[in-house]
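HOLO CASE FILE
Compound: zinc ion
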Amino acid sequence: MAKKKAVHKKVSKPGMAGKGKAAPVRRSAGSQDPLIAPMKGATSREIGHVQLEVARAGTARVKRMIYPTGFRWSVDMKPVVGTALCMHAHVGFLARGEIHIGYADGCVVEYKAPQVVAIDPGHDGWVVGKAPAVLIEFDFEGDTVNRLGMPRAHRHS
Ligand SMILES: [Zn+2]
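Model generated. Tokens follow.
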């Protein structure tokens, strides 16, 4: 059954009015996904194939980690860090993608965006699926476990 045809609305084009010359605002960032776009006010670096942006907030650090498809801590990061497992605690928000965390006792914890993550020290971790994982993380550098009240190692209470 035919419904009423949509009314053709006149779409105004902001920025095109008036002056003959269009303003040279051709920012690629404007059309980019803000979850992975370049971040203002953050220090940017790459470590173990992870794209990392860090900014300070009070005594904490806020980090955006972009883990590529196929990333595995024990393959990509272990050679850089030098420990058998990742000994950091990770607290934050998984904004995109899926990661699985494997502990020394065989436990595997699966996180899929959108989800809050709380990962104990002493783990491997890997990206699952075809999308890079984007994790927004909060830490206190060497004092993260204490300040966030995380266990020193993975355990079952
Ligand atoms: Zn366990």
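CASE NOTES: The chain has two helices and nine strands. Residues 103, 105, 107, 154, 156 surround zinc ion (CB under 6 Å).
CLOSED: yes
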